[in-house]
Amino acid sequence: MADTPVVFVTRNVPDAVEARLRRGYTPRINDSDRALSADDIVAGAEGADALVVTPPDKVTAEVIDRLPGSVKAIGCFSVGTNHVDLDAAKARGLVVTNTPGVLTEATADIAMLLILGATRRAWEGQAMLRGDDWHGWTPTQLMGVELSGKRLGILGMGRIGQAVARRAEGFGLKVHYHNRRRLSPDEARGATYHDTPESLLAVSDILSLHCPATPETQGFLNAERIERLPTDAVVINTSRGDVVDDDALIAALRSGRLFAAGLDVFVGEPNIHPDYRKLDNAYLLPHLGSATVETRNAMGFKVLDNLDAFFAGQEPPDRVA
Ligand code: DGY
Q1: Which of 134, 246, 262, 313 is 20 to 30 A from 284 via CA?
Q2: Any idea which GO molecular function terms this record carries (predicted)?
Q3: Which atom of ligand 1 is nearest to the CA of 107?
Q4: Residue 107 C-alpha to ligand 1 middle, in angstroms?
Q5: Is 114 in the same domain as 141?
Q6: What does the pLDDT average to over 242-247?
């Protein structure tokens, strides 16, 4: 019997996080660092008191049902929790936690990178240079869209949406938003509120998605909603791939109805829709939103703060189930 709680961790974690984990727990780490199947998760959980899971780990109702009775808590190494069936976890009496607040700035930075990369055709420029296909400056080469004076529509004005809005001010963008709750004037900092997503779409030269993946937001940006966007609009997604209807977005990028998209998240990661790779106007990143040393350490420490509270018999600060 281990002296400290056994924690099954589905991926390698940053060194500083692992060091702290080893001080308080008996870790069992999947150091293959590859996504685990349902069977692998269940097998890895054998004899564990808690699991630490990441967005690619699908902790479905079936997986939860098959977990050994020893498992009492699941710490999500993420703020998003759509990979865990929270209802099934609750029904089974499992405590589930996440990592809100600490990835706000890093994710907002990536949203800005996508906005700049998509509007200024950065990927095409890179491909030209790396493919030894640049024949010098010309007045019409890779002309993009200027940000200053454009309208940025933010769907979901939580922590990350607000952090993007703060950055956008510096680029001269006019911020519009839709959110379930209308922000106070202090929080909104002059951003224009829209009481429906449809009203927001109509003014979004650039639309940045920051809503969580829920049954209500599944496939939100479909063909009908894309049609509401201004001509040559740009779509940015750093939330979850599920919020976008891939076929509709790809069709609009291919036809030129949209100028470009900047995407950090995809349905079925890492197996993204293959047509995205064929589109010059899709600026793509592999889910890097929170990928800074500072943020990944902070996420790991938050996972551990929550486990510490749980095993000390206290209410974990970031409990979601
Ligand atoms: C999260 O925490 O949900 C992010 O998607 C990870 O970058």
Answers
A1: 134
A2: glyoxylate reductase (NADPH) activity; hydroxypyruvate reductase [NAD(P)H] activity; NAD binding
A3: 7
A4: 8
A5: yes
A6: 98
